[in-house]
Amino acid sequence: xxxxxxxxxxxxxxxxxxxxxxxxxxxxxxxxxxxxxxxxxxxxxxxxxxxxxxxxxxxxxxxxxxxxxxxxxxxxxxxxxxxxxxxxxxxxxxxxxxxxxxxxxxxxxxxxxxxxxxxxxxxxxxxxxxxxxxxxxxxxxxxxxxxxxxxxxxxxxxxxxxxxxxxxxxxxxxxxxxxxxxxxxxxxxxxxxxxxxxxxxxxxxxxxxxxxxxxxxxxxxxxxxxxxxxxxxxxxxxxxxxxxxxxxxxxxxxxxxxxxxxxxx
Length: 265
Prior knowledge:
Layout: H1 2-17, H2 22-28, E1 30-35, E2 38-39, E3 43-45, E4 51-52, H3 54-66, E5 69-74, H4 80-86, E6 91-92, H5 100-103, E7 106-108, E8 113-122, H6 130-133, E9 137-141, H7 145-150, E10 157-161, H8 164-172, E11 178-182, H9 183-192, E12 196-209, E13 212-214, H10 218-233, H11 236-244, H12 246-249
Parallel strand pairs: 1-5, 1-6, 9-10, 9-11
Antiparallel strand pairs: 2-3, 3-4, 7-13, 8-11, 8-12
């Protein structure tokens, strides 16, 4: 009896972890998408408790084209891989940078953004180079490309947090000399917070950001790739930029610096 119970628990666990195909998602009437809740302007919760941002705008279009409702799940940077692997969400759309390490654990669709690292610091002590960071404390968020990049620089002390809100509060409180994450975000944050400046606007290689699904979920991956290609024909991500990011970066900003249409860099 004990062995049977263990077998049933294992069987149920496997069922829970099973990736949902496009047909199963449509039949359920619901798609589960993991997004950030504290990373404006890409994924955040507004004053009315509604999810907003560049990633969320895309997520809602996905749900519309599938003909289903969308259920958002708030993710931390370090939890994105686990939520895709476990099947807790169907898609991760949380400013997810494509890396070789992550691609071994999840399947990435075609990209819809491009990005590098940036560093923001107080205007009275602007960090302008890696040399300026030697012996200083750099705030980062766990599970990000910034953590991977700066972990190789032993002369820089890293102060790590689980959530973006915690990291920004640490910078505001003066617990670190600077904060690093995607340049697209620190540029937006510095415009909204007087007294801070992005001294390093592009660091490391240019990376891409893409949706991620549970590894082996060919049905949903193929649908997403086709969706991104079709959306490119109508310049959807430029429209998304105009709706969610233009007011942040300024009317003179160039959407092509960030936007990827049709999955083509």
